[in-house]
Structure formats: C-alpha cells, structure tokens
Amino acid sequence: MTRSALRVAAALAASLALLAPRAAAHDGPPYPIFVDEEVGGWTVSIWTDPDVGVGTFYYYVDGPGGAPSSDLLVRVTSSPLDGRSEEVTAASVVAEPGEPFQLVGELPFHHRGLWDTRFAFELPGGAALGELSYELDVTPPGLGAFDVLWFAFPFLALGGLWLRALLAQRAYDREGGAADPDPSTDVA
Fold first, then answer.
1. 175 phi and psi, to 5 degrees?
2. What is the four-CA torsion angle of 143, 46, 79, 116, rounded to 10 degrees?
3. Which of 79, 133, 136, 141 could form a disulfide with 51 if both were Cys (CB 3.0 to 4.6 A apart)?
4. What percent of the chain stands above pLDDT 90?
C-alpha cells in the first residue's frame, strides 16, 4: 500500500472514530428496563424503545394463578427531568395475537433527554398493585444530528479522493511529467 493510500485509510478510520461516542445512545431494537419484577403478585418485564416522537413500551406479564394478562392495566407517566415540557401519560392496551408480549403502550416524548418514568399497575376497578420507576434516556430515532454526516460521508470521501487525484495530476503536469513532445520530431 502506498503512503498516500495509508494516509487516506488513517483519515477514514479517524473520521469513524469520531462517531464512536454516539454509539452509547440507544438506536436499535427495544431493550429491557425491568426483568421479572414482582408487582402485587404479578411477574412483569418491561422493554422499551424510547424514541423522540413516540416511545413504545412492551409488557411481558405473568399473572398469579394463571390470571389473564388482559386483567392488568399499566399506566405509564413520564416527565422530563429538565422541565422543558409537560408530563405525559398513557395506558397499556392488549397486544395483537401472536406477539411475544401481552400488553403494549405508547407515550409521546416531545424532546430528547432524561425522563422520570413511572409505571403504575392496576387491576380492573382501579385496585392498585404497585409501581416501578425508571430514569429513561429518550433519544431521536436514527443517529440524530449525525444522520446527514453519516449518509453523506461516502460521497464526501469520494469527492476528497477525486480532488486529491486532480491536485496530484496538476502537480505532475507542472513538473514536466506530461510535457508536449518536441514539434520538430513530428513526421508529417
């Protein structure tokens, strides 16, 4: 590999390394925030996909004595820790048949940041079973501010390589590497 190719490879690696700290934020499938928690005799696991716009919660429940999951209602309430918007609340609904989770809920998150999230568990008629709390990090879907840079990077890299080749060709031409042949040696 030539030195210039090594420099280009090193520059690409350094550019990708700049994106590494962003990988700590959530982007991808739902992840668990509670697993097999006991709440009022029910075993509950909660998975979430907390995106700005609509955050989704998936509830895996196992009732005491084989009680149907439709007997449980989960009310989720969340408020931003920075106080930039109002508290939001939503109730769970029974999931579509065939889904691995029994209940699902959606909550409108107005902006990114940490949100204090509380899950209240109730039986029909309003009998409270208990509550769980979690500090949820709400992130934009995708890569957030880096989306444009991430998707433009291949085009910018190709443009940079093309510009480098153009400048190298001009330098080569200036040094006489592609000088015009001597017109006196032309045979007509």
1. -80, 0
2. -90
3. 141
4. 44
Provide the residue ranges of all domains of the chain, joining segments of one domain with +. 1-27+143-173, 29-138
The Cα–Cα gap between 31 and 146 comes to 22
More confident residue, 124 or 123: 123
The H or E element containing residue 110 is: none
Instruction: Write down the pLDDT at residue 156.
Output: 85
Confidence (pLDDT) at 70: 87
What span, in angstroms and rounded, lies between the C-alpha atoms of 160 and 139? 32
Give the bridge partners for 104, in sequence order: 58, 93
Q: Read off the tokens for 109.
A: 């998150």
Sign of CA dihedral 106, 41, 72, 78: negative
Q: In the prediction, which pLDDT does 143 show? A: 59
Contacts of 98 (CB under 8 A, 6+ apart): none
pTM of the predicted protein model: 0.62
The CA distance from 63 to 70, in Å, is: 10
Written out in words, the top-level CATH class of the domain with range 29-138 is mainly beta
* The total number of residues written for the chain in this structure: 188
Rg of the Cα trace of the chain? 29
Closest CA to 35 of 26, 27, 24, 43: 43
